[in-house]
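User: quick one, sequence for these tokens?
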């Protein structure tokens, strides 16, 4: 029988297993980002990445302690504290310099999205994005992927993708960045229609997965990798992929070249 994952919401509210004190606990930082990880109406932690961690738990000698918080805070905590992990984190060259990569969960397609009704927005190159306002989560991989280097009045930094989508829906910004899976999760979380939004520009594919601090003990990293290899070999991982992503999401051809974008100031919603 699998042990329960203990959950911390904003590092305040704890949900722990009655047997969680039997073994040491290791902290896994994350944000609410459906359908990978989020809280359902009953306050239970659910999602594809959560199910993956549940499946690996029985092959570990430690209990997984999940802490949910805004992504930027989760990222800073994971970068600061050895023997901790972070998920579902996008893989980039910059992040591979900051963390040890543990496992890949799923490959997604990053794109710029607009409201379907905005026929006036036309983006043929990354430079065209400069003409419009854009909402991005703090610490998001898009800051690296779009090579945002300077402050600019057209970029609004928010705490998560759901808030960015809400700004787009109410036309407080012209564009947002998300991936093909994450957008669907945010749309569902807000009770909106997928048809209200459309791709304006595709720029790359990225692996989402699990990473750890550079100084995390090698035995923890290898144990996590072994547990993941086990659920891939015994078919559990494939079943979880089919459960959460039963129909492959169509992907457009990504633009290969990404040059620096004129950048923007820190404004939160």
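Assistant:
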């Amino acid at each position: 029988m699998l042990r329960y994952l203990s959950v911390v919401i904003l590092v305040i509210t704890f949900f722990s297993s009655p047997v969680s004190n039997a073994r040491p606990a290791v902290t896994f930082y994350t944000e609410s980002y459906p359908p990978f990880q989020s809280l359902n109406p009953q306050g239970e932690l659910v999602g594809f990445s959560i199910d993956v961690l549940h499946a690996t738990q029985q092959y570990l000698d430690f209990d997984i302690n999940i802490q949910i918080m805004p992504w930027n805070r989760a990222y800073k905590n994971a970068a600061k504290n050895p023997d901790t992990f972070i998920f579902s984190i996008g893989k980039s060259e910059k992040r591979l310099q900051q963390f040890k990569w543990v496992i890949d969960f799923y490959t997604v397609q990053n794109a710029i999205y607009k409201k379907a009704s905005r026929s006036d927005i036309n983006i043929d190159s990354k430079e065209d994005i400069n003409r419009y306002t854009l909402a991005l989560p703090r610490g998001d991989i898009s800051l690296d992927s779009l090579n945002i280097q300077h402050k600019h009045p057209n970029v609004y930094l928010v705490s998560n993708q759901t808030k960015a989508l809400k700004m787009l829906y109410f036309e407080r910004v012209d564009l947002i960045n998300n991936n093909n899976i994450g957008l669907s999760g945010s749309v569902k979380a807000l009770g909106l229609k997928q048809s209200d939004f459309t791709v304006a520009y595709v720029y790359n594919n990225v692996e989402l997965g699990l990473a750890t601090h550079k100084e995390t003990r090698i035995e923890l990293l290898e144990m996590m990798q072994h547990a993941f290899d086990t659920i891939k070999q015994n078919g559990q991982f494939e079943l979880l992929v089919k459960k959460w992503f039963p129909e492959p999401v169509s992907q457009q051809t990504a633009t290969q070249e990404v040059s620096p974008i004129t950048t923007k100031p820190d404004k939160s919603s």
